[in-house]
Design brief:
This protein has 348 residues and is mainly alpha-helical. The chain is built from 14 helices and two strands. A hairpin with a 5-residue loop joins strand 1 and strand 2.
């Protein structure tokens, strides 16, 4: 087991390096750097002035060297500003350059400085990721029990009217994107057109205080879309288990149908859906982009949109790092959980 964890950790590290380098390369292409120079300097800068601005601040260095600086394994580049003061990634405002560290990258916990919000990126990420964490928590609390219940009920009696009804509902939820279901829920439950007005169409107030009125619609929108996929996987796994030989043997011995489902079929049927459930975390982290924009909830997805639309390179890179880490960690937890749930893999 420890050897498995060691191999998986090494593979995760290599994967993280490859993915972050790809994102770093794409975000640091010359058109993006040119836009950054004109945004930070002057929109009327000539090509020569742009190249001078980039060269002065170290953007003309080789890509691998700059990637090493961003990681924190290569000494950070320093330059002298127009006012004669020494500047650089490691030199924070008001800091004496003589005492500034040489290494200040991701490995040191320094994610850079946001060119749009004018604060440290780590401050933005911590705050916005916390807001999205609450949204993801409530979505999982609502989505997973409902999806498992639908899948188990549909798979218990394959081909029945209940199975066909629940399967059709699952397909409808999966085929309806968040931007469609979210608008429909707003029109029905929050607008004055229908007259229900049970909830608020905006979740901005939920950033300071979460209530039933301001948080139900975004949670319901994400849960409605995600539960169908988990329910269909659970239904397929449950239907397969119910036709297994040991289930037939239990029926021949006179075991009640309820005991067969709960004590024999349910645990084995949840092995495959467990992996699918763990895959929902990366989907939630990126899927909140639409929902947070639609309901004006300024979490991680909202920050990701702002970073991409405003060419905030440091913030965009940090968002990609967070996404990569979440994907890799959930995959590791999924593999470990799969080993514990499936004795055949554990014994081998």
């Amino acid at each position: 087991m420890w050897l498995f964890l060691l191999k998986r950790t090494g593979l995760m590290f290599i994967t993280a390096l490859c993915l972050t380098f790809v994102v770093f390369f794409l975000t640091n292409l010359y058109p993006n750097l040119e836009k950054l120079a004109k945004t930070e300097g002057n929109m009327r800068m000539t090509d020569q002035q742009v190249e001078q601005w980039l060269d002065t601040r170290g953007y003309s260095q080789p890509m691998l060297k700059r990637y090493g600086e961003w990681l924190g394994v290569v000494p950070s580049y320093r330059y002298v500003g127009a006012d004669g003061n020494e500047r650089g990634r490691c030199i924070k405002p008001g800091m004496d350059p003589a005492i500034a560290p040489n290494y200040c990258g991701v490995l040191q916990g320094d994610f850079g400085f946001s060119s749009v919000f004018k604060v440290d990126v780590s401050t933005i990420i911590n705050k916005r990721l916390g807001l999205t964490g609450w949204l993801m928590l409530f979505v999982m609390i609502v989505m997973i029990p409902m999806a498992l219940l639908i899948g188990v009920l549909a798979g218990m009696r394959e081909g029945s009217k209940l199975d066909r009804s629940l399967s059709s509902f699952s397909i409808v939820t999966t085929a309806t994107p968040e931007y469609v279901s979210g608008v429909v829920f707003i029109v029905i439950f929050a607008s004055s057109a229908v007259g229900l007005r049970w909830f608020k169409g905006s979740a901005t107030s939920a950033m300071t205080e979460i209530t039933f009125a301001n948080f139900t619609l975004p949670v319901m929108t994400m849960a409605f879309y995600g539960m169908g996929y988990v329910a269909r996987m659970t239904r397929a796994s449950m239907a397969e288990v119910m036709t297994a030989q040991y289930i037939r043997t239990a029926r021949l011995k006179g075991v009640s149908f309820g005991n067969i489902v709960v004590k024999h079929a349910l645990r084995n049927a949840l092995i495959a859906p467990f992996t699918v459930i763990m895959l929902q975390f990366p989907w939630l982290l990126t899927g909140v982009v639409i929902v947070e924009t639609l309901f004006n909830y300024k979490g991680f997805g909202w920050v990701l949109v702002q970073a991409a639309s405003n060419n905030d390179i440091e913030l965009l890179l940090s968002c990609s790092v967070v996404a990569v880490i979440v994907v890799l960690i959930t995959q590791l937890i999924s593999d470990i959980g799969y080993v514990f749930l499936n004795p055949r893999i554990r014994m081998s």
